[in-house]
């Protein structure tokens, strides 16, 4: 029996007894069960069609997006929400809407490529996912949507190079952790102006925590946010509304319109530090699975993801592989859905038999095999691993009494060792790990033995700081000296907000750590805090 089948049975069992307990209403339980099976269901076919000409307010308030570039295909996304801070987005309940889409070579759409229509289903909160196929590889395209009299903003996207293409350049950005209540998304405005091929979002696209009337640290004086945001997200409507709040941010809208995104989640898209079907808080796993189902559904609805990623109840296959010619292979991980529960109650703990148990896993066995098998088959120069939590060891003090984070790979050292051994066995010479989660920027050398600074360097880890989480941050913490002495493989640290760009080439890769001076006030400038290079065939970071 698969995990999906097991979880569906658990959902049905708990719904029979849940009623209005705690955070979940009976209606919410029914909705959870409705999408535990395939959707759109019979209700979709029976849903009345809403004449788009009846939409009197701009429905494209949340912008447009694209994602997961393939050699001959792009994925286009939008959502119809004329009043995004209301349940249902301000559209009549139950009505599906026909949306037109266009793809062109130029921003003014004088050289059209493809056009068509798609249905915005109420079951999917009037989101639209269009997979446009049979396109030329390695090309930039522009796209837009129409609904009735309204036209969306224009987005820019691209297709990946052909599988055997001998491409010589790829520039990406990595971002993570964008707590709305901690500050403005200023870094995204600067990201929109970067010359990039693709953006990797490494998790914590939203946070489940309440956002008050003034937007927390944003301290609005020109608006009042409705009370629907001033509570923790637990139901499907809660998560959908929270995405509406985040995606209405103009800086995030600009970044999505400028570049295709490849997304993966971490914990806050559902609940802080959950592990598999184990919640952070003391609730039954079966009850948590209904919350997880709501979170996963809202995630897919609001991200530029393809059909294979559409969830079934509380299960969603998010790990996947993207190739950019012969230059790079990207193996996007999910280190949250399949992991063992954190050892020693989570947090920073002294490692021991519980955390070092060989049976513990961060990826689950199936994803681990998929990753290592993919490396064996890879013909790419750079094998890049976009994922969530820090892979390299991080001791908190340079003494034998050090502690490690039980939520990161340090809490799953056997799992880490199996993955790194798999990379070595597959002959991966240029391994690069992209990481988020920790709200600071790191540059790290991945060592064969982190306890031996002289051991072989297996790859590099580039950790991006947060977009806004942690508020303004500080360049150096008070324990910076301890961190660098405890971890000689740590080559760079910066605790301010921002993102990182990585330019992959045939001879080397360059990482530029970009930071903004503040996020609690809008409009801060961006600067490059540091730049590092790793040479092809000779892993390890050196200042550029």
UniProtKB/TrEMBL annotation:
Domain Phospholipase D N-terminal: start-end pairs: 62-159
Domain PhoD-like phosphatase metallophosphatase: from-to ranges: 172-513
Alphabetical list of SUPFAM superfamilies matching this protein: Metallo-dependent phosphatases
Family matches, as Pfam families: PhoD (PF09423), PhoD_N (PF16655)
Protein name: Alkaline phosphatase
Protein source organism: Streptomyces showdoensis
Organism lineage: Bacteria, Bacillati, Actinomycetota, Actinomycetes, Kitasatosporales
């Amino acid at each position: 029996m698969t995990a999906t089948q097991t979880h569906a049975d658990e959902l049905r069992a708990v719904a029979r007894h849940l009623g209005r307990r705690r955070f979940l209403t009976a209606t919410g339980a029914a909705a959870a069960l409705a999408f535990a099976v395939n959707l759109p269901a019979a209700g979709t076919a029976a849903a009345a069609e809403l004449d788009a000409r009846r939409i009197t307010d701009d429905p494209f308030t949340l912008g447009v997006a694209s994602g997961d570039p393939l050699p001959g295909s792009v994925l286009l996304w939008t959502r119809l929400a004329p009043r995004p801070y209301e349940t249902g987005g301000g559209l009549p309940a139950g009505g599906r809407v026909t949306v037109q889409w266009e793809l062109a070579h130029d921003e003014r759409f004088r050289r059209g490529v493809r056009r068509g229509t798609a249905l915005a289903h109420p079951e999917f909160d009037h989101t639209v996912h269009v997979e446009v196929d049979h396109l030329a590889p390695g090309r930039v395209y522009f796209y837009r949507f129409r609904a009735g009299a309204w036209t969306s903003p224009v987005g820019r996207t691209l297709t990946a190079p052909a599988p055997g293409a001998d491409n010589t350049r790829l520039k990406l950005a990595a971002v993570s952790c964008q707590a709305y209540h901690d500050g403005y998304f200023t870094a995204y405005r600067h990201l929109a102006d970067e010359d990039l091929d693709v953006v990797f979002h490494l998790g914590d696209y939203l946070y489940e925590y309440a956002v008050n009337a003034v937007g927390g640290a944003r301290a609005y004086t020109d608006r009042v946010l409705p009370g629907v945001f001033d509570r923790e997200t637990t139901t499907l409507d809660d998560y959908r509304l929270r995405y509406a709040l985040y995606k209405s941010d103009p800086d995030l809208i600009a970044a999505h319109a400028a570049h295709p995104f490849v997304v993966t989640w971490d914990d806050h898209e559902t609940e802080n530090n959950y592990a598999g079907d184990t919640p952070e808080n003391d609730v039954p796993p079966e009850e948590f699975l209904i919350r997880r189902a709501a979170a996963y559904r809202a995630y897919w609805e609001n991200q530029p993801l393809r059909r294979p990623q559409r969830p079934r109840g509380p299960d969603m296959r998010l790990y996947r592989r993207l190739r950019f010619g012969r230059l790079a292979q990207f193996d996007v991980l999910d280190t949250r859905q399949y992991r063992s529960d954190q050892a020693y109650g989570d947090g920073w703990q002294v490692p021991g038999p519980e955390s070092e148990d060989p049976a513990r896993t961060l990826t689950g066995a199936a994803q681990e095999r998929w990753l290592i098998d993919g490396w064996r088959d890879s013909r790419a120069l750079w094998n890049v691993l976009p994922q969530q939590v820090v892979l390299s060891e991080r001791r908190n003090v340079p003494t034998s009494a050090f502690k490690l984070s039980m939520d990161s790979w340090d809490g799953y050292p056997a799992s880490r060792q199996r993955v790194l051994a798999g990379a070595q066995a597959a002959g991966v010479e240029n391994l690069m790990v992209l990481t988020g989660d920790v709200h600071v920027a790191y540059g790290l050398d991945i060592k064969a033995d982190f306890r031996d600074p002289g051991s072989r360097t297996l790859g590099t880890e580039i950790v991006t700081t947060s977009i806004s989480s942690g508020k303004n941050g500080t360049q150096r913490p008070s324990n910076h000296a301890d961190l660098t002495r405890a971890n000689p493989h740590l080559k760079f640290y910066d605790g301010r907000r921002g993102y990182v760009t990585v330019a992959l080439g045939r001879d080397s890769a360059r990482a530029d750590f970009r930071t903004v001076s503040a996020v609690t006030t809008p409009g801060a400038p961006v600067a490059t805090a540091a730049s590092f290079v790793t040479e092809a065939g000779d892993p390890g970071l050196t200042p550029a």
